[in-house]
């Protein structure tokens, strides 16, 4: 029972299927999951859940390819001083690969756009996204479109939203949040947001590479499953005026950008000197996003007649106007 005790102590899943996966690489005889379950029950290590629905009763829907659908949601955690913070995640539906896991004081619309943009710049665009109906993802119930919706439309990424009052639609990421919180609960509360982010980075590595996921035939890890098949892409043509560029903010807190054969200077701010950045260029705006913190550093209005485009953000993190 040493393996199981260690898994529980580390805040990781320790069920029969997981234990079976840990025994196989050690060259040990591998009993069936029913045998493992019986042994655990004999030692009083299984908590009865009489109200839990049997797995066979669920209708499971999984994307056929990586990047066919990304699920996103955020959950809460508490720092050592009692401050409540939020963790925003992007999860690949096919492989369960954790694409992005970032801590914020409060998740806002600009954070969703920034995290999606940074993730897409690294892994490629998904064919679709699946989220709930939170205002950071959609304004569908207020008869308008928010910046995330406009961004997806410009990229020909299909946006899917769950039905109100039916969280099962985002079941994969809801279950993932349980796994994440169990792992965090096994560790001391982080003192700062940066400390929490260090924990999340470590968890992301473990979740993606060190544990096989029961949803995959052959017991692949999420990373193995994500890399095993060709990736899906958006079916339409992305907006001709949309592009992403990688750069690093110079020692003076500025970036340069060529637009319409003319070089322009973007003022970001000296505190951000040396920061690796993504530059999101759309029809009328330029947005600079931190590649490390996944948050908006500055926004600029495209003005072909001016050499210097100042930061339009009066409040840091505010997402600029329409695409």
Automatic annotation (TrEMBL):
Name of the protein this chain belongs to: Transposase fora
PANTHER family according to UniProt: INTEGRASE PROTEIN (PTHR35004:SF7), TRANSPOSASE RV3428C-RELATED (PTHR35004)
One Gene Ontology term from the biological process aspect of the record: DNA integration
Superkingdom of origin organism: Bacteria
InterPro entries on file: Integrase_cat-core, RNaseH-like_sf, RNaseH_sf
Organism: Mycobacterium europaeum
GO MF annotation, one: nucleic acid binding
Signal peptide (UniProt feature, chain positions): none
Residues annotated as domain Integrase catalytic: 62-230
